[in-house]
Design a protein that fits this description.
alpha+beta; Dipeptide-binding Protein, domain 3; Dipeptide-binding Protein, domain 1; D-Maltodextrin-Binding Protein, domain 2; 3 domains; globular; 21 strands; six-stranded mixed β-sheet; single chain; 27% helix; 16 helices; seven-stranded mixed β-sheet; 18% strand
């Protein structure tokens, strides 16, 4: 059954022939039933940049500070903070009543260990760690920071979604080793025995959790009150099956339906479709700088010159033209650091006979190019399909295997040659915070700190440090433009345009928070 055919049925009709899993039928009305974009591949939000691990982390862990819908940090697990010595000393005091899921109180030493582990993996965390002389527990409730230089952005750094608080025994795990103990500090606890990889993950409300007593819930800030006894993530790779399940009331919330189903889902009587994450994603073509031919900047620049963001975004979201933007650089449009510097390099060349000659002159020897994309994530596959076509028209010999999300996430870590599991290009979507907060961006890192693709552009690291130390927002904007110019000049990666996937949910669900999916706040309309 094609997904369009599914939705031609009336909203109240029973979809005959589509089996309802018994495990779903058995879920009570006190369970929030959610269809995620991808399966939960890791329990460790610090170990991977996978969105599913991040979303899982913000269910089972709490944070010292939380970002609101405008990305402003607010105290979360802390009562507040106190600074001295011209900003070189910070003391953060924990709220009363904080407990882990095993009933043990959350102490300052747990927080210090969690921050140190996070700070070795997260881009914003590495900026904090470079400025920290000491992070320690001054007492059971006070976390003490002694800095080498003032860092006014410390609360914003600690409010990054993957800076979550684990028990000290877990946080002492090497940051490059995945944790296996999901004991959390947040409003939901992970039910390990109900985990079925590739099928389902389950969570239960933690009755010992004490929400923040003040403020209003906004994304990750304010009281994280969970109104359901349980939350279940159920993977539904086929969009038609997912659409039918949502329409029939088998599920309550679908994280990101394909754009070509948005209008039909929105026409259903009991379904609402909205964009909750206005900053969305910026598509990304990431080069492997360690392997021929993309170790040559001239070849990367040729691909950039042929790039047409409209072709990519039309394929991703052409059915909903108001939900994508082109002529996009590193930063989400209409955010403080957004600029047009270097955009002129996107010349959208179509003279492919000449391009092939230029490619040979730049040093391409006809070697096979391995292109990776997530075959089971609609937006990623759409962009990868366009990339495959473009590269072939340019004259590349392309190997484009059909690989699922988990396989690509593993393979992109391989620095080896293609014949040993390596790669040349992978296609992904960079999530909202990376495209708004300069220190949160993985893709502008270089050298030993570089993200997958491993570019070595020392000037990018210099500009990033200058941005972090900038005395004013105006100077930060100037440096953001310089960073973007440098990225387009060295072509560490290519932005493919911005798209904002809507989410679909039962109309009776209210108070779904803005931003990526979180399970607190949401409840049935009374």
């Amino acid at each position: 059954m094609r997904r369009r055919d599914v939705l031609k049925l009336s909203a109240g009709a029973t979809l005959a022939g589509l089996p309802v899993p018994s495990i779903v039928r058995a879920e009570s009305s006190r369970t929030l039933r959610f269809i995620p974009t991808a399966d939960l591949l890791s329990l460790d939000p610090m170990w991977t940049t996978a969105d599913s691990a991040r979303n899982h982390g913000n269910m089972i862990y709490d944070q010292l500070y939380g970002l609101d819908a405008g990305f402003t940090p607010h105290p979360q697990m802390v009562e507040g903070h106190h600074t001295e010595n011209d900003g070189l000393t910070w003391d953060l005091t924990l709220r009363d009543g904080l407990r882990f899921h095993d009933g043990i109180p959350v102490l300052a030493r747990d927080c210090a260990a969690s921050i140190v582990r996070w700070g070795k993996r997260d881009p914003y965390g590495t900026a904090l760690m470079a400025r920290a002389a000491e992070i320690a527990a001054a007492s059971d409730r006070v976390i003490h920071f002694r800095l080498k230089q003032p860092f006014a952005s410390l609360p914003e750094a600690l409010a990054q979604p993957t800076c979550v608080i684990m028990p000290e025994r877990v946080a002492k795990t090497d940051p490059f080793t995945e944790i296996t103990d999901p004991t959390g500090s947040g409003p939901l606890r992970f039910i390990r025995e109900e985990r079925l990889p590739g099928v389902r993950s389950a969570y239960a409300r933690f009755e010992g959790y004490v929400p923040r007593p003040d403020g209003k819930a906004s994304f990750l800030a304010g009281p994280r009150v969970v109104h359901f006894d349980r939350a279940v993530w159920a993977v539904r790779p086929d969009a038609g099956t997912a659409a039918a399940a949502l329409t029939n009331g088998e599920f309550d919330w679908w994280e990101a339906p394909p754009f070509d189903l948005v209008s039909m889902l929105g026409a259903q009587r009991d379904i609402r479709v909205e964009v909750k994450n206005a900053f969305g994603f910026i598509g990304c073509m990431r080069f492997n700088h360690l392997r021929k031919p993309f170790d040559k900047v001239a070849i990367r620049r040729l691909v950039l010159a042929c790039m047409n963001q409209s072709e990519f975004m039309q394929t991703v979201a052409g059915a909903e033209p108001d939900l994508f933007r082109t002529k996009v650089g590193l930063f989400s449009p209409d955010t403080p650091m957004a600029n047009n510097a270097g955009i002129e390099a996107l010349t959208e060349r179509t003279d492919f006979d000449q391009v092939r000659k230029d490619l040979a002159a730049a040093g391409y020897d006809g070697e096979k190019i391995v292109l990776l994309g997530f075959a089971n994530i609609v937006t990623s596959k759409a962009q990868a399909d366009v990339a495959d076509d473009l590269l072939r028209r340019m004259g590349f010999d392309v190997d484009y295997p059909s690989l699922d999300f988990g396989t690509v996430m593993q393979r992109r870590t391989n620095k080896g040659p293609p014949e040993k599991g390596g790669w040349h290009i992978f296609i992904t979507g960079l999530p909202s915070l990376q495209n708004v907060l300069v220190p949160a961006s993985n893709v502008i890192r270089s050298g030993p700190a570089a993200w997958f693709g491993w570019p070595d552009v020392p000037r990018l690291e210099t500009l990033r440090e200058e941005w972090l130390n900038a005395p004013s927002r105006e100077e930060q904007r100037r440096l953001a433009a310089a960073i973007q110019t440098q990225v387009f000049g060295d072509v560490t990666h290519i932005p493919l345009g911005q798209f904002s996937p809507p989410t679909a949910f039962n109309k009776r669900l209210v108070d779904i928070q803005p931003g990526f999916p979180v399970m607190h706040g949401v409840h049935w309309e009374s």
